[in-house]
Amino acid sequence: MIFLYPVLILLLFPADSAGLVLLSLGGFWVLWRHGKEGPAHREEKLFYFALSAFFLAALLTTLLGGIDEEGMKKLNKFLHLLLTIPAYLFLRRVGVSLAALWYGLAAGAVVAALTALYEVWGQPVGFRASGVTHPIIFGDLALAMGIMALAGIGWFSSRARRMALLPIVAAVCGLLASLLSHARGGWVAIPFLMLIFVWFARAHINARLRWSAVLLPVALLVAAFLIPATGVKSTIERTTNNLSGYFHSDITDKVRETSVGSRFEMWLAAWQIFRENPLFGVGWGHYKEQAQLLVDAGIRNRSAADWGHPHNQFMSALANGGIVAYGALLLLFLIPAALFAGAIRRDEGADAQRLALAGLLLITAYACFGFSEAILERNRPASFFAFYLAVLFAALRLQQQRERSSPVERKQSLAAIIIAQDEADRIEPCLRSVAGWADEIIVLDSGSTDGTVEIARRYTDKVFQTDWPGYGPQKQRALEKAGCDWVLSIDADEQVTPELRRDIDAA
Fold first, then answer.
1. For the chain, does the N or the C end have fewer beta carbons within 10 angstroms?
2. Per CATH, which fold does 414-506 belong to?
C-alpha cells in the first residue's frame, strides 16, 4: 500500500482516502487486539496533540457558529487529521518498509510527470495537467512527492551509486508536473524546499550528488520559463500583470475577478470577517454567506463570495475559527516540524535523518501551499498529508528505537584512514561519520590549498601532509601509521552509515 499510494492518488478517484482509512482500521484493530502498548513517549504525545487540536478547534468553532451541511463537509476533511493517529499506531506495530516508501514516492513523481506530458502534449499553450483531480492539487502533490523522494537520496546511493540518480529524476519529474499544471501557488514552496534540502545536504550528502540534486531542477525551471510551449512564462507574466492591475483598480474592475484578483478579494474579505469575529470566527460553512454580505455592502468585489473558502488556509482559519483555530493550525505545522527538525539535529542514524527530512519537507510544502489554497479543506491533499505524516513519523520512531537500543561493543580497536587532496567541500561529513566511533582517525593530505587540513584537524591530531606518490604508496603510508587492530580505509566523499557501524562492531 505504501508503494502504490502515491501513484494511485493522482490517477484513481477512490484512492484519495482509501489508503488512510485502511491504515486507520488497522490501527483500531491493533488497539482492540493488543491494547495500549505502554505509555506514549513525549514526542508521541506532542504529535497526537498537534493533530487533535486543530480538529477540535474546528469542531468547537463550527458548533458555535451553527453547523450546517457545508460545515459538516469541512469537518469531514479535517477528520483525516485524527485518522493519522490510528494509522500511526498500526504502522508502528507492523513496521514501514523503507524500500516501499522511497520507491513509491519516486514512482509517484515519475508517473505524475508522464501523466502531465500526456495530457499537455499537443494541446494549446496554457492547457493545464490535472490527472483525475484539480490542476492545483495535481501540481502540489506531484511537487511534494518529488522533493520527498529526494530526501531518500542517501538511501538509494547506499544501495548502489547509480541508484542515486532515481530520486534526482523523481524531483525533476515532480517539478515538471507542477510546472505543467500551472499551479503557481505551489511554486512559492520551491525556494523554501530547496533551502531546507541544501541545509541538510551540506552535512549528509557528498558534493557531487548535492549539486546534481540542486542544479538539475534549477535547469528545468530555466528551460520551462524559456520554452513557450510549457506556458510557464505566459502564466508568470499574466500573474504579474494581474497583480499590478489589482492595485490600480476599484471594487468593480474586472481585474478583481481574475484568479489573482479574486484571491486578494477573498483574503481581504476573510480578514474583515475575522476582525468582526476575532475569537471563534463564524464557523466553517459560513464564509461564503459572510463574504456575500460584504459584497452586497459594496465593500468587496463579487468574486470574494464565489467560493466556500478564501483560497488560503491561514485566512480560512482566521475567518472561520478565529484566533482559536488559527493558533491550532500553527501548532499543526510547527509541532511536527519541530519533531522532525529535532531528529535531524540529534543524528540518530542516517535512515532516521532521511525520514525526518522528508517529514520536514512535507510540512514546509503544505504550509506554503496553504498561502494560496485552503489545502486541508480539499479531500485528496488532506488525505495525502495525513497519510504521510503517519508513515514518516512511524518509520522515524521505529528507526530511533532501533538506534537507541543497546549497541554492540566492539572487541577490536579500529583506525579510520582517509587520503585527501582539496576535499574541503566533502571531507567533514566523512570525518563526522567516524568521529567518536573509530579509536583513531588518520588523514594523509597531499598539498591541499582549500582548507582540507584545517577541517581535518578539528576531528583528529593525526593529520599528515605529504607529497603525492600515487594512491597505492599513499595508502601504504597511512597503514603504517595506524596502530589499531583493524583499519578502515574510506574516501573523503564517503560516510560510514549506522548500519555499517553495527556490522563492524558485531564482527
1. C
2. Spore Coat Polysaccharide Biosynthesis Protein SpsA; Chain A (3.90.550)
